[in-house]
Amino acid sequence: MKLQNLLILVSSYVFYGWWDYRFLSLILLSTVVDYFIALRMAGNTNGRNRKLLLWGSMLFNLGILGFFKYYNFFVDSWVAAFQKAGFTMEYTWTLQIILPVGISFYTFQTMSYTIDVYRRQLQPTRDFISFASFVSFFPQLVAGPIERATNLLPQILQKRTFSYDRSVQGLRLILWGLFKKVVIADSLAPHVNDIFANYAEYDGGTLWLGAVYFAVQIYCDFSGYSDIAIGVSKLFGFELMSNFKFPYFSRNIGEFWRRWHISLSTWFRDYLYIPLGGSRNGKWASLKNIFIIFLVSGFWHGANWTFIIWGLIHALLYIPSFIFNTNRKYLSYGVAENRFLPSLREIFQMGTTFFFVTLAWVFFRSDNLLDAVNYISKMFVEMELPQSKLQGVGYVLILIAIEWGLRGDERLTTISKNFTIRLLFYMFTSFQVLRFFGLVQTDFIYFQF
Fold this sequence. Notes:
mainly alpha, 2 domains
């Protein structure tokens, strides 16, 4: 077990250091600080001292995250506010800061460890190599899923053995993740980039197409990475949490957020929403907490007002569902359970949910608020579609068709009991990945977060 974890740790540091070795010091520093804080916390029975240790961990990790990710944003916003008030300010406070890849992910991951130790839900480990492996676990280090110490650390602390069935499932997930990223997301990327960069030159129909393309691109890009990360982890004997469960088949916003970026939404639920009071103190207090969660979620994505407005829009979309108690309505398998085709009501619900989610994505994708507002204002005029932009529709339809058949089984435990269907699936996806590999090279979108 110790040699296995040492291999994981070395591999993880080489993997991350390949991008920029200088930022390995941040991961190591965060690891050392939380390792010793958790040990001190566990050995301390004084409630006040334990809370001070927890706040020390939180302030340290959030301080690093805030400096690298938000320093220039706060400086620019502060100066802009004074300038709007009539004050002229010349400043040289902004810095040329490189954002470390995945800092938002591993910061939240290590914070969950100290919080769980504080809550006595987890005993801290004295095995530094194992803990460092948990913090820097390379398959999900730079774009999630954001793993909980209560799930991943116990797996690291025990010896892993090879499992043929687990490895087959892992390779299947890797293949499907590569298909979503290389074939669909990267093929849509040039259309999305062109339409959003030149939206003023296009008609409303093309702008709708660009928004839909981006909705599909970001899903395939992000969920594709998650599938690859989960699949690679299976090869090493680990089971990570699911991060996506076919979110665009959701029937309302509440269901969407139970199926989209699950590791982040549940992190905010357990470590922010519930500590704030959750739904225990009446409707008005609950509404306040919901606003806080969605605004923080938007801010987590980046130092830009577009992300904050994106979070605010989702809060406004979620609140009616919360008020009328429909946010927890769909908790089972999903749409069209035990049926192949959805009902007309389900089609309407999915279409409406996707419509509003797609509108919100415009803010997420735009460079600034003015571009987002102008983009949306042009979406409802001159509904024409140029032939040159329809090439990506086929990729969207292929995704819908395959995912509809897979719905309810995001782990791809069984593609089909029919050998011929499984073989055709493997042949089709493998051929397409090889065909498209390298034609368009784009970084994973969530590397920037």
